[in-house]
Structures are given as C-alpha cells and as structure tokens.
Amino acid sequence: MSDTSETPEPLSYELQREERIKRNRARLAALRQQSKRAVLPVHPKTRPYLHTCAAEAPWLPGGILASHSQGMCTQLPGSLTDDQLLQSYSLDTCTGLLAAGGKNGRVAVFAVQEGVLGEDCRPLLSGRLHRSWVSDVSLLPCASNLAPHEAPGLFTASNDGSVALWDLNRTSGGQPVRIADAGIHPGGIFSMHVLDADVVTSGKDGAVALTRLRPDGTLQLDQQHADLHAGVAKCARWRDSATVASCGNDRCIKLLDARTAELQASQTIAEAHSAAVNRLQWHPGQAHLLLSAANDSEMHLWDLRAATKPLHTMSGHIQGRCSKIYQPVFIWGGAAIATGGQGLHSLSVFDTDTGRLLSQEGMDGDLAAAHTPEAVQATPPNVKLLINGEFRESQASQWVDVTNPATQEVISRIPETTAAEFDEAIQSAADAFLSWKRTPVSTRARVMFKLQQLIRENMDDLAYNVSIEQGKTLADGKGDVFRGQEVVEFACNIASEMKGEFVEHVSTGMDTYSLRQPLGVCAGICPFNFPAMVPLWMYPLAVAAGNTFVLKPSEKDPGASMLLAELTMEAGLPRGVLNIVHGTNDTVNRICDHPDIKAVSFVGSTPAGRHVYERAARNGKRVQANAGAKNHAVILPDAHPEATTAALTGASMGAAGQRCMAISAAVFVGGMGQWETSLREHAQRLKLGPGTQAGVDVGPLISPESKARVERLIASAEQQGAKILLDGRSPSVPGYEAGNFVGPTIIAGVKPHMDCYTEEIFGPVLVCLEAETLDEAIAIVNSNPNGNGTALFTKSGPAARHFQSEVQVGMVGINVPIPVPLPFFSFTGWRGSFFGDLHMYGKAGVDFFTQPKTVTANWRDQDDSPGKRAPGLEGVGSSTPK
C-alpha cells in the first residue's frame, strides 16, 4: 500500500493499555463461568480439524462460537441433530437466532436465548439448501426491501457458485422458501458479506462481485472485478457502502471502491502475509483498522492510514501441521480478538491494543489462565491416525516430535501406532476392498478428478505445510505438490490403463482375453524429502486401480499426507479405502510382515530400501523400493556456459540438495578450469534462510543429524585432498541460529575413493570430478553402484546418442539436469537405486498395482442333446435362413 505523507493521529487504543488489559482479563474470568453453562455435547463423528473460525469450533471439536451484543461468547455445537452439519463452515447471529452452514449444502437455524440453544438443541429449520458446501450465511432481520415479508431473511453462499435469499417465516417440506438466487462465481464462492441487502462475494475464479437485492425481490449482479486476485479470492468484506476489502491466495489485501461502475482496487498491501490470506475483519469502532488472518498461522492488525507494515502481528495460537487461521472476530466492542484455527481445538483471545495473547481455551471447556506463546508451544498437537474414514487420536505410549527444521520448534507429535491400531487399519482396508474393487472404474476415476481439483485449490496450504515441516522454500513446496498432482491426473485415465487384450477364435468356438484386476490391500512407506509428491505417487494410482491402501508418512513431516488424506476424503473416497498409520521401525516391519498386505511401495535410503525389499519379498509381497542415488552430470567443453552453470547450481543446491534426483556429482570432460569461477559465482548468489521467507533459495536440512553428516563429509573431502571452492559450513542466518542450515558448497578435485563421493551427501553440495574423454566420464558414472539419474550437457548430437546408449542409468537427461519423467512414463531407477522390477507410476505403476488374469472361453452353440440348437440360434450357420 502506498505510504501517506501525513503523520497519523494518535490511535485511541494506544492509550491506557494496561487498564484495558486488566479489563480484558476480567472479561475472560467472566467468560470462564459462562462457558461452563454453555458447553453442549459434541457429536462423536466430528472430524478433528475443521475449517475453524471464531464463530466455530473454539474448544470443542465441531463446536462454534457466537459473540453476542452483550459482549458474551457462547459455545454451541456445529452439529446437533444433523450429521451433515458435522463440518460447520460458516455462522451468523442476530437477535434470538443463530444460522450455521456446512458440508453438503446443509444449513440449520437455531433459536438462542441467553446464550443457550432452545428446544433441546434442535434446529428450527434444517435442510440442504445448496448442491455443495455453504461457505457463508448471513441473517438479515426485517430489511425494508424485503417487504412484504416480515420475517428475517437468510442469505447463503455456496461452493456451487450461487447466492440465495431465503424467507425463514415460510417453509416448504421443512425448508425455508427461496426468495431469490443468482449464479455469481462459476468456480464456487469462498466468502460473502451482506450490508443492507447488498452482497459482496469472493470466488475461486479470483473475482470479487457486488450483487444487489432489487425492490422486486430479485438478486442482480451489479459489479464484478474478474481478475482482482491471482488464484482464489478468499474473502471480501464491506467497511461501509463505499469501501470493500478483499484478500486471496496471492497474499495481497486490496481496498475497492464500490461507488465506481466496476470494482477497482484503490489501495494494495502486497505480501501482506507469507501464505494465502483467508479472512479480513474490520474493527467495529475504528474504521481505519483492518484485521487479516492467513495460512501462516498469524493475524495482522493494519492501520490503513499508514500500512507499510502491520501494527501488530499476533501468533502463538496454532502450532503444528495445520497452521491455518480462517475467521477471527473482534469481541467486546473491538477490545479483543478471538480466533480458532485448523488443527487445534482451542480458542485464543488477543488484546487488540498490544497484540498480546491473553488466554487460550482448551478442549476441557475451561478457559485457562493467561498463557504466553511459549507456554502454548510447549503442548504441540498430536497427529491423528486415519482408520475406516475417521481421524482419531492414537492410544500410543510413545510419540515422536515433528520439528520445524528452521527453528527446532516442536510443531506436532506423531504416535508409534500400536499393534492393535495397525491391525484395525489393515482390517478396515481389507473390508473396504470387497466393495471398492467392484466400484465402476468410471466412479473411481471421478474421485481422482475431484482430488486433483482440490489439490489445485489447496496448493498454497499444502506448500506452506511442506515448508514449515520439511524446510523447502514455498516455490519448492509447490513443486513438490505439483509433481504429485500430475500422477493424480494420470490416475484420472485409469479406465484406459486397465484395458486388457482379446483374441477371437484362438481355437474352434474359443476366445481368449486378459483382465487386469486389483491386488487387495497395498501399503506405502514415505520419505521425508517429498512429503506431498511421494504419497501421491503411491495411493492415488493404487486406489484408482481398485485397491485399498495403508499409508505410513515420514515421521519427520507427516502433515502433507494428512492434509492430502483430508482432501481425498472430501473428493469422495469411501471409508476404509485409504488409511494412515504412523511410526518408525516397528510400523515399517509390521507393513512388511502383515499377511493381508499384498504390495509395498517404498521410497527412502538404500539400507532401508534393501531391508523393506528383502523382508517384504520374503513374506510373499510385491515390492517397489526406490532407494539412494549419486546422480552425475557430465559436462562437455562445448556445453552452453550460462545455461549449464545455472542448471548445475539449481540441480545440486535446490531443495537443499535433499532430492533423490539431485545432481550431486559433476564430471567435467577436459577439465574444470573454464567452469570454476562462474559456478562459484552462481552458487554464491543463492540466498539461505527459512523456506517460508520470500526470496530464499536454499532452506534448512531436515534435522541436526543431517546437518552434522553433511558437514562431516565436507570436512573429510578437505582432509582427503579435495579443494573447497565454496564452503557452506556454519553459515549465518540471523534470527534462525538454531536452524539446520548448510550453505551452498562446491568441492573440486574429488576422486572416486573419497568419502564425499562414495556416500550420498543429501545436502547442497556439488562434488566435482574431471575426465579426459566422454568414455572415461561414462566409465565413472557406470562404476558407481547407484543408477537413478544422470545428465549430459553438450551441443553435440552424436555425443548425446553415444552417452544415452552406453550409460547404465535408468533416467537420462540431455541438457536436462533432473530428468524425472512425467507420469505417462515411469520413474525408472536402475541398479542400487531400485529394488524390484515394476517401477512407480505410469504404465509400470498400473502393472504393479494390478495382476493379469487370462480367460479362455468356449461357448457351445448346441446344448447337450445331439443335433439340437441352443435357443435363438436355430438359423445361425444354416444354408437356408429362417
């Protein structure tokens, strides 16, 4: 936003701060007593991480929070008598009424008296008002332009793209009567805000639209800005009849002038957050104050008179794999801010004056004493299991911390799944297989179509989770998700991939044909380095082919798998088809040993891959195990200088070198001399820092142990006679001194016997060797025990053909540094980089998850009576037609 030349007036909330804080604490004490009377039972099926807003799920799973004009907050369950309201996405209140909208287009309206739901918590009205989930509801009591209707109206907005107005005083079939509706956003509506019957909406198409209720009772689209936000427009909120604020996945906040013929952005706050901005709220008493909430787990309070940076940044509320804050709300006349959040069943209250966290409400229903952010972080959330369609708390006695590699902060804990829980997950998958294998292949494909759509819509959220748990930059995190999404897109074509073969008349009256049928229960064991991509390489293709699946995410970064599982369930996958267990060695061994598991997919280190392959194969299972690598780039003297240097730098340092297809060794034919300076200069320009920070090129390594291993191998190279051209050990990253950072490193003069060459470094380190000829370089590549990927940089076609023919590596790039095939091919590692015979995704992936069945059929055209034809065939084959 452009700065203002005027000095802002002193803000009223900057005065008498301590007095306000004391008053807020007194209100919290009163709220503690009120909440005990307002707590109501919660449906046991409630899913554990809802799209939590300040009007929803504060300290009870599935609950909702209503703020009243009297300044009190009351807990109300988001689902009472209707299972379809287990996920309440939106809520609004007016005098004596509370409306909630949720999953599957359901809306319920309750009577509220003195903070308590009437009629034993039963809704006054309940029904499915839309074809898809209800993103927002707004009660409109007795508006003059609703005449002759005297009763309150209810506006609803939905993911089906429409806005509707309902008369709550008239019902038909137990549902309110629709007064008017309008299709606004074809891709779906994310938010709606109503001011005097004027409706502003934001949509998945990136647009913000203004719709007005006309005197004749119809809704008419009045203004629309079609490209206001890149990607999804998450929220639009009226300040007054002239001004609208909007935000979106592009991390921007824009102020719009609603008086113009078309909505236009008058001011912009670029990069308002480090992730998608979900919600905006105007301060009820000070029109220049705007609150924003985002997927970076932070809320910002902006003074729009001089919004070069936030007035306050409020954090410490949510820690863990789900870091989204959706719908905060000002309470107590704007003196405080209450928020829930996805992944943590608690309500936090912040002081508006200072941004200080005042208190956090726990699931026990009592407001705790005021907590510091440090105290909140001391109790990270537990990652759930997914068994038979339910996300549930494990009964494990042992837990493993999940840490942010940039800070060492514990952000969640995963359980060592118990033997009983593991067996239950396998049984759930086995039971689901009986019906899932008979589900039409077109139905299974439609689930994949919906899943890829949901992944696209939630790309920013998934990438941010990858960044905070694994350490990747946000750009690398999006790449992680996107390469997995491509396999989901391939799975959409599963019907064509499942086709068999047919030969007619293999003998007299006899045909032979083949079928591809699913195996049964399959399992996947995932690595830490691609927490979104690798799970998507595994289970979508398996379940699309008719199998059921048990997934074990990496214990270091399970969050992406859990978010993907949530999206997969939303896409329509039935209960039990996908299950998730957690753990380390014991869980891996159970997967290898359980007799009901028919196939195991694995990605990880070579020792672990060999163990899984040998143990699972010994138990009669199919195994595909992608293991370690030492990927070489061979550079000929004629290679393009700038393009080759940039490719080598990105392929070796990107994702902090933690890629199984990273170029970790470069072989320079004819010597390295001409490349040394430019390579070092390129690498020096890379910025080191936390992945969520803008402009960062190289994030942290996954763990302190990984950092220690990488630095040990750099030191060993120096001790064994190599030359350190660029040393990334012990870098300075201000504010992140505890992070697992190793900077870009280049080692020259490396020989094949050195530890830095024989071991997989898995860090931002490029080791450089020299060869006299191309054949000598090929011999170096072929003598390495691994065979995942390799690349040649040259302008010579004959040299390229010779290289691709003679090199003993499964994936070859010609002037392509990381030649990972697209999903209509397969990921084809060789030698020590792969154990098994059927590779991941592509046609080989379909073959891995299915088994061929060959049928030979002989249908006689006569029954057992000599000379008698089968019914209907009397004239078939006769010389005289009948």
UniProtKB/TrEMBL annotation:
Repeat region (WD), residues: 154-169, 270-305
SMART domains per the UniProt record, alphabetical: WD40
InterPro entries in alphabetical order: Ald_DH/histidinol_DH, Ald_DH_C, Ald_DH_N, Aldehyde_DH_dom, MeMal-semiAld_DH, WD40/YVTN_repeat-like_dom_sf, WD40_repeat_CS, WD40_repeat_dom_sf
Any matching Pfam family: WD40
UniProtKB keywords: NAD, Oxidoreductase, Repeat, WD repeat
Disordered: region residues: 857-882
SUPFAM superfamilies: ALDH-like, WD40 repeat-like
One Gene Ontology CC term in the entry: mitochondrion
Biological processes, Gene Ontology terms: L-valine catabolic process; thymine catabolic process
Domain Aldehyde dehydrogenase: 392-855
Catalytic activity, EC: 1.2.1.27
MF terms (GO), sorted A to Z: methylmalonate-semialdehyde dehydrogenase (acylating, NAD) activity
Family: Belongs to the aldehyde dehydrogenase family.
Record protein name field: methylmalonate-semialdehyde dehydrogenase (CoA acylating)
